[in-house]
Amino acid sequence: DREGEAIAWHLAVLLKVNLNEKNRITFNEITKKAVLKAVDSPRKINTNLVNSQQARRILDRIVGFELSPVLWRKVRPNLSAGRVQSVTVKLIVEKENSIQSYLPIETYKVIGHFSAKGISFKTELSSNLSDIDEAKAFLNNANSKNFKVKKITKKPGKRTPSAPFITSTLQQEASRVLGFSVSRTMSVAQRLYESGKITYMRTDSVNLSMDAMSSIQQQIDREFGSNYCNPRKYSNKNKSAQEAHEAIRPTNFSLSHIGDGSPEDKLYSLIWKKTMASQMSDAEIERTTIEIGHQEQKQNFNTVGEVVKFDGFLKVYNTSTLDSKNEQLPDVSKDEILVCNEISATQKFSRPSARYTEASLVKKLEELGIGRPSTYAPTIKTIQDR
């Protein structure tokens, strides 16, 4: 990436190397094969990338040197402004302003509890009612009515695994699943990297090397069988990604754990599962939707149940809400009369969007193309400290 190219340029100038000769070697993974291949195919230093890095440094100085003294005078000493910091603070302030100015909207959520063949299940009216009068009228109208199955829809579906971890997605998932802060995730990942357990943890590339993909396929075949194996190459949706390194992955796929529940073990296990799952088969599901109502009812009650027909990648990576348990539904047929146990309408007030967590702030920065994988954790720590 830019920084690597600038380091090469500085070295070339310092060592008085001819910039027109092919002396620059690059590799995207730290393996013997990749390094030897890089040595065999050097190239010239890319001046555009060097200039890009220089421009970035100048921007940092223009923003930092111009704005920081203003903060010292107007707010308090020891504050700092920066090209990424300042925009991050702006995002947080805008979010807070939108929360403060939000006007809640009142609605009534209607829940129906029905049963058939000894199985009770919960349903929800397809849309909320607008006020208390409408809610009371609906409940009165539902009293002593015969509720029946109006429609049953069964649809096969599938779930596809997502790409291996990059810095931002690792930070987000470790926050959600393990409760790690962004800085803690990076320090634990650093220790895993230094001990040779994972590849470099500051990356924006979802690519896996051919060697890694081959190792994963062999491991899946050994542990689960060939029907669980489905090799995939992922592409990055972020156009500004520089992809100087591989995705974050284990270096040895036969090792699913490295200890006894330490933070390193927990994070390593998450990375192992995510990388393995990325090369596994889709999960096959069947989704059943039942619509319930009576003759005079305009809106129907809906409930959805899912059955996993083939677990695929969920066999390894089921830490997400993808694998949430759905309502167990009875085997009913169209026009079947159901027992209505209870219908209730509850007053609800809409809420503004939540304040940023560290993980959701990283996601927003990445969406807007602000910062680099190496800057997310220090940026957030800096604005919290100051």
**Shape, principal axes of CA atoms:** flat
Strand content: 15-25%
- Integer average pLDDT: 91
Q: State Rg.
A: 28 Å
Structural class: alpha+beta
Largest sheet: 6 strands, antiparallel, barrel
Task: Give a brief outline of the structure.
This protein is an alpha+beta fold and 386 residues long. Helix content is 39%, strand content 17%. It has helices spanning 2-14, 32-40, 47-74, 85-100, 132-142, 167-178, 182-194, 210-223, 263-278, 358-367, 376-385; strands spanning 106-116, 119-125, 147-159, 283-293, 301-310, 337-349.
Which features characterize this protein?
386 residues; alpha+beta; 11 helices
Describe the model.
This protein is an alpha+beta fold and 386 residues long. The protein is built from 11 helices and 6 strands. The protein has helices at 2-14, 32-40, 47-74, 85-100, 132-142, 167-178, 182-194, 210-223, 263-278, 358-367, 376-385; strands at 106-116, 119-125, 147-159, 283-293, 301-310, 337-349. The longest helix is centred in the N-terminal third of the chain and has 28 residues, at 47-74. The model is unreliable at 320-325 (pLDDT under 50).
